[in-house]
C-alpha cells in the first residue's frame, strides 16, 4: 500500500505510519517498497506514532468526532465474527491482515 501512497503524495506531503498489526508476530520478512525514491523526490515526511502518544487529546477528539458519526458524516467499518468459537480464527485474521475495519467477535446476540 505504501507504493500507492508514495505515488500519490504531494510535494512536502506527510504520511502517518501506524496500523501494522499484521506484522507484529510475523515470522516472514515483509515485502519491500520499490518506489521509496518518491519519498525523497517529493520531500515526504513520514512519522510513526502510537495512539497512546496523543491520549491527552482524547476528550477533544470525542467532542469533534461523535457528532460527525451521529450525523453520518464519518462512517466506520466493523468486521464481525459470530460466536466465541470464531474468536481464534478472527484473531488470526487480525494478525495476518485479512480483516478490514474494527474487528469484533459477537459472543451472543442476547
Automatic annotation (TrEMBL):
| Gene Ontology BP annotations | response to oxidative stress
SUPFAM superfamilies registered for this protein in UniProt? NAD(P)-binding Rossmann-fold domains
Molecular functions per Gene Ontology: 2-alkenal reductase [NAD(P)H] activity
Task: Please identify the protein, giving its name as recorded.
Answer: Uncharacterized protein
Organism expressing this protein natively: Salvia splendens
Amino acid at each position: 500500500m505504501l507504493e500507492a501512497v508514495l505515488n500519490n503524495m504531494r510535494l512536502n506531503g506527510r504520511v502517518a505510519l501506524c496500523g501494522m498489526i499484521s506484522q507484529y508476530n510475523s515470522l516472514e520478512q515483509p515485502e519491500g517498497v520499490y518506489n521509496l525514491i518518491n519519498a525523497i523526490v517529493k520531500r515526504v515526511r513520514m512519522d510513526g506514532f502510537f495512539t497512546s502518544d496523543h491520549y491527552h487529546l482524547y476528550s477533544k477528539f470525542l467532542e469533534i468526532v461523535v457528532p460527525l458519526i451521529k450525523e453520518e458524516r464519518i462512517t466506520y467499518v466493523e468486521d464481525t465474527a459470530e460466536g466465541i468459537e470464531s474468536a481464534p480464527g478472527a484473531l488470526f485474521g487480525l494478525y495476518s491482515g485479512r480483516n478490514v475495519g474494527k474487528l469484533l467477535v459477537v459472543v451472543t446476540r442476547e
